[in-house]
Structure formats: C-alpha cells, structure tokens
User: Fold Ribose-5-phosphate isomerase A from Billgrantia campisalis.
Amino acid sequence: MTQDELKDAVAAAAIDEIRPWLERDTVLGVGTGSTANLFIDRLAALRDDFKGAVASSEASAERLRGHGIEVFELNSVGTVPFYIDGADEVNAHLHMIKGGGAALTREKIVAACAERFICIADASKKVERLGEFPLPVEVIPMARSYVARELVKLGADPVYREGVVTDNGNPIIDCFEFMIDDPVAMEARLNAIVGVVTNGLFAARGADVLLLGTEHGVERLTPA
Ligand SMILES: O=C(CO)[C@H](O)[C@H](O)COP(=O)(O)O
Assistant:
C-alpha cells in the first residue's frame, strides 16, 4: 500500500471511531495536513449527522466549508468531544511532534479543548524516540533570533522556516538534531523561553487513541 492509501485507511477508521457518538448538536475538532484532509473528505458524507466543526487552520476551515460543513469559532463552542488530527511523529506514550504544516498553535489549542484526541497516522510516523523530525517552534517575530540562541543552548540546531508565516502571523523555527528523551519536560522547558508562542511537542496533552495505518491493517493503540 502507498502512504496515501495508509492515510486514507486511518481517515476511514477515524470515521468509524466517532460515528456512533455523533449527535445533531455535536461540534468536532478537526486538524490540519494531508491525513486530516482525507478525514475531512470522508466526514462530508456524514454532514447531516452532526452540527459542524472547529478547525485548527484556515486551510482546514476552507476545506470543511467546501464540503458544506459549518465551521464554528472555538470561543463559541467551549469543548469538543473529539479532536482528530495527524502527527509528524508519535511514540508509544502517544506523545507527538506536530506542526510540519505550521498549524501547531491552533492544533494545540483545539486539542486542549477536546475530551478525546484521536491521532491518525501512517506507520512511518511511529517512532521509539521523538526528534528525528525537526521540532517546530512558533515564535513572536521580534524574538526570533533570541529564541534561536536559547534553542542552541538546549542542544538544537535551529533553522528559520523561510517563507512560512502561520495563521497567527508568526514565523517558525525548526529544531534539527534534537532528540528528545523526556517530551513532557522538554515541552514545558521550551514554553518557558520568552518569545515562544508554541512548540510542536504534544506531550502534556498527548493523544488518547492512535489509529495507525500499517500493511496489516489499521492498529488501534492507546498510551503505553
Ligand atoms: O501537525 C500537522 C500540521 O501542522 C500535521 O498533523 C502533521 O504535519 C502531519 O501531516 P500529514 O498528515 O500531512 O502527514
């Protein structure tokens, strides 16, 4: 199977996971990226079975609306029963690196408001130790150089993501050569650097369920 077929298989599995719980007033949290896009496309068939969605990016909001799914502001919704999103890396504890698509801040906010985070990913995303994928850090523009120097002190090789501005108007720094032994501690450490808006470690609030697309079918994993 191709990677895209594995992504579509987990998108379908996520639909099966949430379908029994959908009610006419349900507002879902929906993530960003190619796997989330496949989920959105499949969600279109159920659009009359739930109320709408909160999106973690302008791109996902536009895709949802394109399918006739109403998009709500998070502030008007409060909590969502499910947040469904992909990941760049995920470990056995269902800690993740996210933000490859630069949507990490809104993803983390919607995830924080979700009763359950369902991570959908193809098998290439499952790792023993997080960090092979460069960790994204969204920063306030004027703090970019300062934050980069602090990241060097922590052992990272920070690289400014040229030409990328987040939906919040901020730049991204990607941390290369930065293997992470304790994702919960490192997430908090990075958050403490002045000028950091969000870092792409989703560990304090990891996923509750991982639907992992493998050659042998979709595996349903919960945190080790
Ligand atoms: O965090 C993300 C976007 O900011 C995505 O979830 C992550 O990059 C995975 O993307 P894809 O499903 O395209 O592999």
Summary: Helices lie at 3-18, 34-43, 58-66, 104-112, 144-153, 183-191.
